[in-house]
Design a protein that fits this description.
Layout (H helix, E strand, L loop, with lengths): L2 H15 L9 H15 L5 E7 L1 H8 L7 H7 L4 E8 L2 H13 L1 H25 L20 H8 L2 H5 L2 E2 L5 E2 L3 E8 L17 H4 L8
Antiparallel strand pairs: 1-2, 2-5, 3-4
Helix pairs in contact: 1-6, 2-6, 5-6
């Protein structure tokens, strides 16, 4: 996939992060987004790692017991296995973001949104290549009622600092900032749609006619 094709996949999601309609952005702003995306790609060093874990072991690894997290139980119910997927764009993306925040604030907002959307897209591509068969969508620590502290446990258990350069922070987040740790349940299909979400009836985004996934 070339850079133009990748931009076309990433741009609608990045626009949503910026609370803009990708189809209504004027030519000048669109061209600025293209330029910033090209700039972003100069600093991207995408790395990912995955590990298949039994349902019993994913609970043990995360320190959770059935009943501790409604979301965790909901997404893993009736799954025969799970897979942890960790991914990052690399520290170079973070370093350039800090520079842009000092020199071009509006550009920095675009850059951050593009980077977030790019991480999702590249992780989507990585997940697709794993040929997981029927599986749930990715969910992450901090998603719903799943404790954010699980990030630290997974980073240590999978040696992610050594493997792909993801470090833990004091507030349970990750460095590089454009990194993610996610989990899929294996053995049942569950696409990222509102109808498959445990928070279908209480979601504030849906009440505002918004979605947290691509449509």
């Amino acid at each position: 996939m070339n850079t133009t094709e990748l931009f076309n996949q990433v741009f609608p999601v990045a626009s949503r992060y910026m609370r803009m309609d990708a189809d209504k952005i004027d030519e000048s702003l669109h061209n600025k987004c293209v330029g910033i995306f090209d700039e972003l790609m100069e600093f991207v060093v995408f790395k990912a790692y995955n590990l298949h874990v039994s349902i019993e072991d994913i609970y043990n690894l995360t320190g959770l017991k059935p009943g501790d997290s409604e979301d965790f139980d909901f997404y893993l119910k009736d799954c025969k296995d799970s897979v942890i997927i960790a991914s990052t764009l690399g520290i170079g993306v973070d370093n350039h973001a800090k520079k842009m925040q000092r020199t071009d604030l509006s550009g920095a907002v675009i850059y951050d949104s593009m980077a977030s959307a790019l991480l999702e897209q590249l992780t989507d591509n990585y997940e697709f290549d794993l040929n997981l068969g029927p599986h749930t969508f990715r969910f992450a620590p901090g998603y719903g009622d799943i404790p954010l502290e699980i990030n630290e446990l997974i980073i240590d258990a999978l040696s992610l600092t050594k493997r792909i350069g993801i470090n833990k922070t004091a507030d349970h987040l990750m460095l590089p900032q454009k990194s993610m740790i996610t989990i899929c349940g294996i053995g049942k299909s569950m696409a990222p749609t509102c109808g498959h979400c445990v928070r279908f009836n209480s979601c504030s985004l849906r009440k505002g006619n918004q979605r947290c996934y691509s449509v």
